[in-house]
Amino acid sequence: MTGGALGKVKELYEGHSDRAHRFRYGLLAFDVVTILFVIATSFTSHGPIVEIVDMIFGVCILADFAARLLIERNRLRFLIRPVTLADMVSIVSFLAPLAGEGLGFLRVVRTLRFLRTYHLMARLRQDIPFFRRYQDEFVAALNLLVFVFVMTGLVYATQHGRNPDIGNYADSLYFTVTALTTTGFGDITLQGSLGRLISVVVMIFGVTLFLRLAQVLFRPTKVRETCRSCGLSLHDRDAVHCKHCGALIHIETEGLE
């Protein structure tokens, strides 16, 4: 790839232009479509059409992976990142049918990475007032949703075909949610040592993420206005002084509600 072409790719992934933002939003949409496709096909038999679509998704993910690798300065560090390893598993899961389509759910980790990047987070705050006002709540809910999808995919990939209780994605989702909420009806259990380990991970990390979501939902509403003196970013909506250092802050407001 020539230097000019490489520069254009780098601008799409890391640039500030409207074109770059639209491109990254397109990648997010692609992630959502892929997830919905994997969910839908978990309920059906996989014929030639599904395998062809799998291949198309796999090639697209591979092209995205290759582009990111080319523009990365430290490629070794890039290759050992958890999200990069998840991408590798996703590529294999779509290009090799024997790998099991359930592993494709690991792609959802990439959605979390996109939303946590500075450029996209700033763009979301700028484009969507609702997101700007409820950013913490949105991110906490996304973290929990991502975890549920990832663990559901792992349950499906490791238990489907081996565990008679796991017949499709809905069964895996049902188990994940009941384990996460510690309801534990007992009608579906995971087999083997790996299954028990997955159950433990779902309960420990799932409860933690659920409590984090509850915390941001029920705490007093805050607004983001960085204090110029100490850097504190969250303040009460009607605050005049920073609670941390006492400096005056100027929060834009539309008046009393």
From TrEMBL:
Source species: Salipiger aestuarii
PANTHER family associated with the record: POTASSIUM VOLTAGE-GATED CHANNEL PROTEIN SHAB (PTHR11537:SF254), VOLTAGE-GATED POTASSIUM CHANNEL (PTHR11537)
GO:BP terms for this protein? action potential
User: Where found in the cell?
Assistant: Membrane
Q: Where are the transmembrane segments?
A: 25-43, 49-71, 138-157, 194-214
Tell me which UniProt keywords the record has, alphabetically: Ion channel, Ion transport, Membrane, Transmembrane, Transmembrane helix, Transport
Topology in membrane = Multi-pass membrane protein
Q: Name one Pfam family in it.
A: Ion_trans_2
Q: Which domain of life is it from?
A: Bacteria
Q: Enumerate the spans annotated as Potassium channel domain.
A: 145-218
Q: Name one GO cellular component term.
A: voltage-gated potassium channel complex
What is this protein's record name?
Answer: Voltage-gated potassium channel
Give GO terms: molecular function aspect only: voltage-gated potassium channel activity
